[in-house]
Amino acid sequence: MAAIELPTWAALAPALILAATALVLFLIDSIESEPDTTSPVLLTAVGLAGALGALAFNVWYLIADTGQNAPIELFGGQLMVDGMTLVLGTIVASVLALVVLASYDYIADDPYQAEYFSLLFLAATGMTLLGSVDSFVTAFLALELSSLPSYALVAYLKDNQGSVEAGLKYFLIGALSSAIFAYGISLIYGATGSLQFDAVAAAVDPTALPGILGVGIVMVAGGVAFKTAIVPFHFWAPEAYEGAPTPISAFLSSASKAAGFILAFRIFTTAFPIEAVATTIDWLVLFQALAVVTMVLGNFAAATQESVKRMLAYSSIGHAGYVLIALAALTPTANADLVLGAGMLHLLVYGFMNTGAFLFVGLAEYWDVGRTFEDYNGLAQEAPIASVAMTIFLFSLAGLPVGAGFLSKYVLFGAAVGAGLWWLAAVGAIASALSLFYYARVVKALWIEEPSQDFEIDTYPVGLYAAIIVAAVVTVLLLPGFGLVSEDAIAAAGALL
Amino acid sequence: MTGAFDFAPAIALLPLAAFVVALFGGKFLPKRGALAGSTALAGSLVLSIWTLVTVAGGETYNADLYTFVAGQDTLTLHLGILIDPLSALMLVIVSLIALLVFIFSLGYMNDEGETGLPRYYAELGLFSFSMLAFVLADNLLMAFMFFELVGLCSYLLIGFWFREEGPPSAAKKAFLVTRFGDYFFLVGTVGIFATFGTGMFAGPESFPHMAEQALAGETSVTTFFGLGEQAWFTVLGLLVLGGVIGKSAQFPLHTWLPDAMEGPTPVSALIHAATMVAAGVYLVARMYGFYLLSPTALGVIALVGGFTALFAASMALVKQELKQVLAYSTISQYGYMMLALGGGGYVAAVFHLTTHAIFKALLFLGAGAVIIAMHHNENMWDMGGLKDKMPVTYYAFLSGSLALAGIFPFAGFWSKDEVLYETLIHGLGGNPLLLAGYAMGLLAVVFTGFYTFRMVFLTFHGEPRTETAEDPHGVRWNVKLPLAVLGILAAVAGVINLAPVEKVTGVHLTFLHDWLDKAPDSFGTAVHHYTGDHGLMHEFAGYTATNPLGETGTVLAGAAVSLGLALLGAGLAYRLYAVPDPEEHTDRLGSLKTLLMNNYYQDEYQVWLARDVTLPLSRAADTFDQSVIDGVVNATSSVSLFASERVRRIQSGIVTHYATLLTLGLVVILVVLGLYGGWF
Questions:
Q1: What mean pLDDT do residues A19-31 have?
Q2: Do A180 and B666 touch (CB under 8 A)?
Q3: What is the pLDDT of chain B when averaged over all its residues?
């Protein structure tokens, strides 16, 4: 940052831009002459500008090494900006941009569009902030900031029973999980007398009150497990993803999950480093068990779904299990930089391929194709480009080398093997093999099956198509460009440890 | 400074360019790609000759061109070029014959108004490219790749007239039978790479050299299956020999070659007589330093060669179609080359390879001319008296026949005599296997003389036996030119290695020996390294030469015996068939003729092997695969699906259940970790 010396608070620029965009959207909504007269083009343009602005700042900071040599601390150590913050910011802003673009078509006929976009940006602000929290207080606030708008967004289709029901369930489970998280925080405070991550780590005393600390840690883990849809805190996910407007499903399963994981990475490496708390609670074992259960349950449940969207919801749970390997494999013998970096890389790649896959489902909903695998039969004849993109997403999700999903999974499993957890990698590989079965079902339906219905496709929505194609291009380009991004991610992980 | 070797890749690449031109532009070219091919081959021939001259000046070349897999701490796979006297000679032979065949094809294919000519010339170009690249190969893997590619071209060209019934089936047979041998070759190639970490033919890093050092106890290599080093090298040598036996049509994988005559005659001349079939023999010569380390492998080569020479010659005795006689004669002649290699006659084998390439290409092209004249009737009993109608063809064909039969002083006499002589002296040196091979080779000489002249007399002499033979179709310069060139060569090519004359007169005349000895010592491919006084043959194979009648005496006796036998066979044919109206004297052989006509039921037993042995085995394997393997797979998937169905039911849709399960899950985690961590 030689050319321009920005003030320190400018390190938060990505989050600030998102928050400002949310407010601008509110403003536009409040000054319109009559309800729902604002042009959707204007709203989308403002949203896109905000998301791309945030993305630009993140990428710039990543390239300029902002906070990557030494974390930038703000507000008396409540917030901080380091490499991991920027990686998360990049993921959230990228997914947000795709979702905004796709929403232009998806909610074209629905009311309250300004509110929709505004809530989207508030949630994104919370998610971005989750990457920079440095104490349990800000962590709780950021978590709620990202969660509360999400509940509303899931229930956005007010006349759709599924949407409303999903929103309510999400809210109830979310409330329960938040309560558990908040209670966990209070127990931690009771055991250590501090809320700041570093201070907690310094104050951990394995001999005094081990039970209180242990229960607190498990409950905090529960809080992040809710956000990342890890078993047994996953129950909301299939319902919410299926009921929500599809761009929101994409947003929650990609960006929100990434935010939850980044928070988990930070808490468990800075507040509860395994060296400090191992005698009280060996959270490696906890996460290893949860990773196995999550991978197995997510993939097995996905295998028998009839609805493509619900299949993607369960597959998203399975992918949470894969990423959890990054925490579970932080054994003393592991190459810790590589393990955590691999988790972040998978989140980044997943952000594009999963968003793309959900948006394809959104496209199918836009055309009223139907929900099930059979309804997709022969769709490739009508929409070949989008079908090619979907095929790339699905094979990349399964870990075939058509997209970067292959490499990120490979690095992740490789890092687990390097950490001595070959069995965990083996479970992951078997789960991936199973996942190929249900991903391939969609591909087969698209390309091989004869159409079971007459498609009535008269328009090709520009926004959705653009978002899908961008996601596909990035998914493929990350394959050759993997080395480029992996350096940043592994360096960001290294700074954390 | 740029020399011939800088253009060496172009020798192979020019025909490749011709392939592309003929394939995509053949339709628009005046001669449908023949001119492009001829031009390219002429270029290749010029470059080959330049290379030959450069090698004659004492230079050689061994270089990598392109590495496609660079190994770290392990083997590296690459394409490269090895030019030593052997490959330089082979390059000239291949490009010369290919050029002549391109020219001849103008007469055989274009003038006859065949369709599909661009395809024909494209395939011919691709073949020339593959064959030349095979010859240039500096390592076993590259050799294998182009070995397979020539096999593919052979398949395509045999099946050129794919709308008829015979050619596609013959093409498939050729492909399958040679592929059977190539499996062994592939396994052998992998074995050699695994053992030595390299497939290089020449140089200090080559596998023959490493094997030699290993046997001398200087280094050690990895062997497999608990075999000793020499035993393991024998296994590797025999595996590679599998490919050789398939490609050079040696017993028992010779059955494809007679059928391959379904292809156009120029193709038979180029591929199934002069070049591709020689690839097997060339490969053995190329890695001769490796075979010399294993007396067992040499014995097998000699025995297979000698037996094939006799066996194929006996079948040629009764064939009625011109090209069939030539096909069996080809098999027989390659048997001689293998016999020479197995018998320690490296120079003799290369010599016979060279002369055979010339006179067999000549005979096939001559047969092609006859076939044009006879309106594509190939039965010799329908010919007769063609001598006066087509004199150029007759005299050229006669020259080739005299060479084939081994009549003094035509090329074949010198080379066959040297083959037999080398085998004899090494056999007398205490190797009964070689003596058995020699005996079979000697007997085959009689047969060769007989079937060759039976063919000549039936075709050209006597009275015309059909109307077509009375009024044959004329042929043009493009047929006559190649015949004339080859006819002269067949008569005089023997001068390149007049070993017997040298031994008798003392004048130095063994030019081919000197030529092959030019390879630098660092390559380890020179003759003195193979068969010299301190060569591998003496050190490792344990061959010694014994001349019971003194050197000159043995040479003369051997030559006299083989010439006498050849004249005996030819004379018998003259008596029986050089009459105005010959009869089918072979009928007197009775049931033996039936056996010979049916090729010793070789095809039948191979079909039986395929249909009654392999097929039931495959069916059993299929049943095993369908029931056991698929059963396990299906069981896994049904268990998975069943489990999935159960897992799915946890998601009941009722939010209170979710809250309960979530809380219970948390409690279970707390209890387990609490007990584990000792909180209570």
A1: 91
A2: yes
A3: 84
d(CA A440, CA A394): 8
Check CB contact of A282 with chain B, cutoff 8 Å.
yes
A44 part of a folded domain: no
Which residue of B lies nearest to A278 if distances are taken between CA atoms?
B677
Please, are residues B11 and B42 in contact by the beta-carbon 8 Å criterion? no
CA–CA separation, A344 and B518 (whole Å):
64
Question: Does some domain include residue A298?
Answer: yes
> Considering the domain boundaries, does residue A115 fall inside one?
no
pLDDT band at B2 (very low <50, low <70, confident <90, very high): low
Q: What is the pTM of this model?
A: 0.66
Contacts of B603 (CB under 8 A, 6+ apart): B255
Both tokens of B341, joined, read 């290699």
DSSP E strand stretches across A57-196: 72-74, 79-81
Give the whole-angstrom CA distance, residue B416 versus residue B103. 29
Dist CA B151 CA A202 (whole Å) = 75
pLDDT attached to residue A1 = 44
Q: What residues in A contact B662, CB-CB < 8 Å?
A: 173, 176-177, 232-233, 235
The number of distinct structural domains making up chain A is: 1
Q: Which residues contact B217 (CB under 8 A, 6 or more apart)?
A: none
Does the model's ipTM exceed the 0.85 cut?
yes
Range of the domain at A294: 284-497
List of chain B residues whose C-beta atoms are within 8 Å of the C-beta of residue A210:
677-679
% of chain B residues with pLDDT over 70: 99
DSSP A300-323: HHHHT-SBHHHHHHHHHHHHHHHH
The predicted model gives B73-77 an average pLDDT of 73
* Amino acid found at B467: E
Whether A105 maps to a domain, the answer reads no
Reported as type and span, the H/E element at residue B57 is: none
Digit-coded pLDDT (tens) for A67-85: 777 888 888 888 999 888 9
